Amino acid sequence: MKKLLALSLFTSFTLILNAQPILNLDSCRALAIANNKELLITQEKIASAYHQKKAAFTNYLPNISAAGTYMRMQREISLLNSDQKNALTHAGTAINGSIQEFAQVIGTQFPDLEPLISSLGNSVVDPINGFGQSLVDALRTDNRNMYAGAITLTQPIYMGGKIRAYNKITQYAEELAQEQHDAGLQEVILSTDQAYWQVISLVNKKKLAEGYRNMLQKLDSDMEKMIREGVATRADGLSVKVKLNEAEMTLTKVEDGLSLARMLLCQLCGLDLRTPITLADENMENLPVKLANTNFSMENVYANRPEIRSLELGTQIYNQKVNVTRAEHLPSLALMGNYMVTNPSLFNGFEKKFKGMWNVGVVLQIPIWHWGEGMHKVKAARADANVARYQLEDAKEKIELQVNQAVFKVNEAAKKMVMADKNMEKAEENLRYAHLGFREGVIPTSNVLEAQTAWLSAHSEKIDAQIDVKLTEVYLKKSLGTLDINQ
């Protein structure tokens, strides 16, 4: 990709320096790849899949989290009811009453002891009432403002194979994103080559149409002279003019088609649609044609095709999803540790202080009975995996057919090329004899027009045959999975 970016930057710099940029096929490919939005999207998908893989690996590592809370309570929780609070705060008074009753009973028999016992009862009222009040105060919760916090550490030990399967899924997903990018890259190259050779074809057909028009203009001029000399009829002149008008219309259509083809190529290359580009192969009279190698191995084709590799990765992903589904219904074991703080704290009565404690333990979860839910989910996941496998097999069959069709088209294009060369030789020879006979006055105008039309058709067929050879080679490389930016 670095080489590709450098080539794209160099090409863009060249386009800025030159008012009439000249592009070859490689530079068009580089510009199209650098400016294609679908490829930029797949690049971001690759980055996303990479980070998802990294995120999946963190499931093997301890998870540390912290939580905190504050609550404002409308009412305070009380451990004692109102009667109990009243009894404790007046315990001394109650005891004094009992002592005074006891003193009256004793006083009937021992009058001297009554004042002593009465004074003893009065002396314990305040201390006992104070003790009761302090006990009520000590049992007050004062929980209207509550704070709590915890730091938790969780270390998975056994999750039924879910973590391992999920890591494999994200690894396959990253490879799948890369394969989809490669497939998109080949599509961009194919589209660019088609647009490039379409422009070359129309450029040559424009030259051919101009040559044909000039030929008819020359013939029309000769016919005007012959009509004035009385050696040709007005009908012969009109037939030539009709052909000349048809040639003008054909040239106009070719020019319009060429303008649209250039716009399409500019759009693919990320250039302004009205950029006056010139292609390197426009001025070549005969395009260099090299017949493609049609020897191939289907195993190599399957290994090279991004579509097959994508489906293989998809099959692997679905197989791992079966393991994930199965793991959801297997026992799981994890190590947990906590450190918790609260305010009010209960470790030394009710205190308005932050105090905490740590704890550690293991968590074991064992599914017992879910009415066959796990079994049905596993079977559904297996069915999805079988669908992916059948899609892979179907794709292999279609690709084998596609490759053989591409080979057939390559061979057919080679045969058409040979026939087009022979037809062009015959058409040029026929045109030469027609012009010679016309000048000698032994061949009528209609025969000359037929020879010129045959010459035009032969040249047009040769251009089409050359472009077909180029494009069928690209189609074959695409079907074989060997289409690359450097080819």
Descriptive notes:
- The protein has 487 residues and is α+β, with helices and mostly antiparallel strands.
- 69% of the residues lie in helices and 10% in strands.
- A four-stranded antiparallel sheet has the order 2-3-5-6, with no helix packed on it. A two-stranded parallel ribbon has the order 1-4.
- The longest helix is centred in the middle third of the chain and has 68 residues, at 162-229.
Report the span from N to C terminus.
15 Å
Major sheet: order of its strands?
2-3-5-6
Radius of gyration: 48 Å
Number of strands: 6
Shape: rod-shaped
Beta-strand fraction estimate: 5-15%
Number of helices: 13
By helix and strand content, what is the structural category? alpha+beta
| Helical residue percent band | 55-70%
Biggest sheet details: 4 strands, antiparallel
Mean pLDDT: 86
Topology as a string of helices (H) and strands (E): HEHHEHHHHEHHEHHEEHH
Stretches where pLDDT falls below 50 for ≥5 residues? Answer: 1-10, 15-19
